Amino acid sequence: MRPRPYLRRKAVVTGVVVAAVAALGAVSVMALSLADGASSRPVGPSPSPRAARVVPPPANATFDYQIGASYAPARGVRVLSRDRSGEPAAGLYNICYVNAFQAQPDELNWWKKTHPELLLRGAGGAVIVDQDWNEALLDVSTPARRAEIASIVGTWIDGCAHRGFQAVEPDNLDSYERSGGRLTLSDNASFARLLARRAHAAGLAIAQKNTTDLLAQHNSIGFDFAVTEECGRYGECGQYASAYANRVFDIEYSAGDFAATCRGSGAALSVVLRDRDVSEPGSPDYRFKTC
Fold first, then answer.
1. Cα–Cα distance for residue pair 69/61, rounded to 1 Å
2. Is 114 exposed, middle or buried (0-12, 13-18, 19+ CB in 10 A)?
3. Phi/psi-derived region of residue 256, left when phi > 0, alpha when psi is between -120 and 50, beta in every other case
4. E strand or H helix at 241, and its extent?
5. CATH code: domain of residue 208
6. Torsion, Cα of 36, 225, 196, 170 (10° steps)
7. For residues 151-167, b (16+ Cβ closer than 10 Å) or e, as one string?
8. Of 50, 114, 128, 285, which is most buried with the most CB atoms under 10 A?
9. Distances in Å between the alpha carbon of 244 and those of 67, 87, 205, 247?
10. Per residue in 53-63, pLDDT tens?
11. Residue 162 in 3-state DSSP?
């Protein structure tokens, strides 16, 4: 999922049914899901005996956020986040982006066909949708559903480990804010705990993505570091820095917020300026700058 608009955490939107995905997109996504091992068969933590020691990313390392497109990192970049469909960059600390709490629009048909019961629904059975990005929310409201979704997302996490990533970034930890009261903070924390166990079993560190309301539980959940969007803009960087010993990787989307965050936190945290489409060099919208 790409970054939210400025009010991404202020407005709570409840659902409508997502529009059907184009057939070609559905086919390609189903292929990707199958390649990553998505399955209805419940599975536990990765059984691989080779699981390495979990190593969190270094604090205050130059960072690039490439979840929209992969490209050659700029000189000096040491930590990189890429989508799970991409590949890690040799010689860098690589974070694997996974949309864990919501369904990508081009994956919705796969969820509807194989796991319709795992999509969060409102009155009359309508799917609850994050309207900013047209993403259906996954239903993590019960232990059984959390376990089943974790078995699916867990195969994606294992895939990240097998391809050589060192960490995973599960997005939309704050989906309860957009659920119309059908999900709670506790539901999402419980699901995140399952993901942390799976990541650690695979030898991966795991990031807390935004959601200051869960900072008090970061140890019990098992988060190792934070990836934040606009912690400078929202005055939250200090809270994350205290919780994670400065292992905070912040993305700012406006030049003014970036400059202010660099002045206030750039000496201790990893701060990057990116465009909201997280595009690649050559795009007219591409922006990349570090403190």
1. 21
2. middle
3. alpha
4. helix 237-244
5. 3.20.20.70
6. -40
7. bbbbbbbbbbbeeebbb
8. 128
9. 22, 26, 13, 5
10. 899 999 999 99
11. helix
Question: Does some domain include residue 37?
Answer: no
Quick one: DSSP state of residue 248? E
Question: Residue for token digits 């959601």?
Answer: 211
Closest by CA to 227, choosing from 175, 171, 166, 155, is 171
Find all residues with CB under 8 Å of 114, minimum gap 6, and list them.
38, 40
Q: Domain range spanning residue 263?
A: 55-102+140-290
Backbone angles phi, psi at 9, to 5 degrees: -110, 10
Let me know if residue 17 belongs to a domain.
Answer: no
| Closest by CA position to 139, among listed 105, 183, 177 | 183
Report d(CA 150, CA 209) in Å as an integer. 17
Q: pTM, whole model, 2 decimals?
A: 0.84
Reading the block at residue 54, the tokens are 């979990």
In the beta sheet, which residues pair with residue 205?
A: 167
Is 205 within a domain? Answer: yes
Number of domains, the chain: 1
**Residues in CB range of 28: below 8 A, 6 or more apart:** 106
As given in the structure block, the two tokens for residue 132 are 């900013």
pLDDT tens track for 55-87: 999 999 999 999 999 999 999 999 999 999 999
* Residue 118 forms part of a structural domain: no
Rg (CA), the chain: 18
The residue whose two tokens read 């040799």 is: 90
Confidence of residue 52 (pLDDT cuts 50, 70, 90): low
Q: Is the pLDDT of residue 237 over 80?
A: yes
Distances (CA, A) of 99 to 60, 201, 233, 234: 25, 19, 23, 23
